[in-house]
Request: fold
Amino acid sequence: MKDSIERASDPEPVQRTRLLEQAFNNLSLGLIICDNKYEVVVCNKRYMEIYGLSSEQVKPGTPVRELIQHRFNLGFKVLSKPDEYIRARTGNAVVPGTTVHQYTDGRIISYTVYPLPDGGAMATHEDITAREQIRARLKKQYELGKQQEEALRIRNLQFDSAINNMSHGLCFFDPAHRLIVCNDRYVEMYDLPRDRIGPGISLAEIVDMRFEAGSFPAMSKEEYLHWRAKVAVSAEPTDSVIELRNGRTFKIRHRPMPDGGWVATHEDITEQRQSEVKIEYMAHHDSLTDLANRVLLNERLEQALGHRIHREEIVAVHHLDLDQFKAVNDTFGHLAGDKLLKIVAGRLRGLVRDTDTIARMGGDEFVIVQGPIRDPAEATSLAQRIIALISEPYDLDGHQAVIGASIGIAVGPGDGLRPDKLLRNADLALYRAKGDGRGTFRFFEPAMDQQMQARRIMEQDLRKALAAGEFELYYQPVVNLASNEISGFEALIRWNHPEKGMVAPATFIPLAEEIGFIVAIGEWVIRQACSTAAKWPGDLHVAVNISAAQFRSPGLMQVIVGALATSGLHPTRLEIEITETVLLQNKETTLELLHQLRALGVRIAMDDFGTGYSSLTYLQCFPFDKIKIDRSFVKDITENTGSLNIVRAVAALANGMGMTATAEGVETSEQLDKITSEGCTEMQGYLFSKPLPAAEIERLFLSGREPRKAPGRIVAA
Ligand code: C2E
Ligand code: MG
Ligand code: MG
Reply:
């Protein structure tokens, strides 16, 4: 073709041929034409460039096979074997079409064959490496994008299901306070209309909807928005608890985002809050009566003392203790006791003002904080009303019960600035009220504190006294009036205190009873009295006083039997003196024990007869061997006809029932004459002898004489 172009003589065709040649050689495609023998006719420069061929190597007539071989040498990759490939390309008819060839150096060349009408072929070769690379890169990017999109889609799905399955409400807002996303729980928690909630909605609109739904705190919309906006702007993580008008309580955790928006979780803590409130309530209230307990009382008292506005304002602390509550419990059972306590709580509630606090301290003890008041007279008035109302009868499922109340009052700040001090002083005053006969109230006085101090010291001393051998038994003769003989002696305890000297039983026996120490002391008394009496001649009795507390402790019978056995004293020579109080409590068990003692042969005397409330009743329930008429009746028997009548009646009663009637505290011969003429069978008193140490008794009444003869009037130490 080149030759034919150069050979043309026509300047114009020559010119055109040159132009064509130029165009042919400047094509970006490599172009080659071969004839039907598969030999090169012509090729352009680009073709040679692509394959690095010299014009020598592709001169017309060069077999195409050589060119293909050359391409193999360049690294042309084919799937089939090169020979087969060459054969396929240079054998049969030309097959039109485009193939892409790859070379080991990375080049990619697109090869298109066009058959020519004369049986030859034209082929274009285009280096598409760069294009293919871009295409491959684009494809890769496209695939990567698709993968990422898929991953994102899955992540979104996971995120959606995660946020919609959260137990908390969740919402994201953008910096313009518009919703980005929220979960179903959020919509449900605030009763929001589902169809109206979506991305883009403003916080203000949501607040409007919440206001309509009632899922809104007790404040105005403006206030709420103002508050939320403040939280949002602050860029600080904020946790807040809101109580909604619909009764729910939510905890909102606000977390700012770097762009000025925020994410907030909303947790429904209603149940948790309710149980917290319940626990809190339980921690501060008495479960039986619903009154305040000790903890709340302390708080309230502290408040009351701290909140006094005027200097003259005072706070009264009433410490209340029910009298005879134990008897109700013992008689009607604990359920009835509980019911009574509830009724008491109700009655107290009706007596106090809203500003006062009533607390149950446990058992049958209550404390009322009354304050602020201006005058202690207001405390007096309340105490009186309390005592009167508590003393009204109670209906306990058909049973009627009557109890009383004792009250100790301390007034702050005078009696104490701190709750513990005031409560302690009210307690001291209560102790005094009970000591003064119950059913009454007492105000605290500083002397009570000193007495309590003294009592505490005595308690410590008392606990040491037994081991230190500081107790001693004195004995007072009991004289038979008919025979004028000593029938026996009453053992009366004395305490030789190392500093205080001789302490009378009236001083320490009540305390010993209160602290239960009487059991140990009493045991010592019984053993000591039995062993002393066992040495006395004949059948002289020994009388031992036994307290109620000793009857309550389980070992009394064993102690008595043990003392009798150890000493060898015959049981009939032992006399037990009890007072009414012994029978007041645990009547059944006490009576059973008395009968057992009686069966042993031990004699039982009722001491201090006439001082209690129902001495006669008790005479009915046990066949006493002896009645000891209290000293108080004997004392004024000569002046007071009332006392005389009592002595007469009791003596008659005793004689009628076959009991001994012993008059206590006979000091004068007039008294002796009277009690004798009124029918008493025995006497005991200073007129005959004071209580004396065992050795004195031995010396004066027992040694060397007729033991049973009363030796006249002796007034000893
Ligand atoms: P009590 O059993 O009624 O004893 C009689 C008390 O009257 C004794 O007082 C005795 O000393 C006193 N007394 C006797 N004759 C006269 C008199 O003519 N004039 C006066 N003014 N008093 C007379 P004491 O020994 O001080 O005992 C007081 C109470 O202490 C006893 O009263 C008794 O209840 C109790 N007690 C004494 N010893 C014991 C004991 O070992 N155990 C128990 N549980 N109580 C005891
Ligand atoms: Mg006695
Ligand atoms: Mg007595």
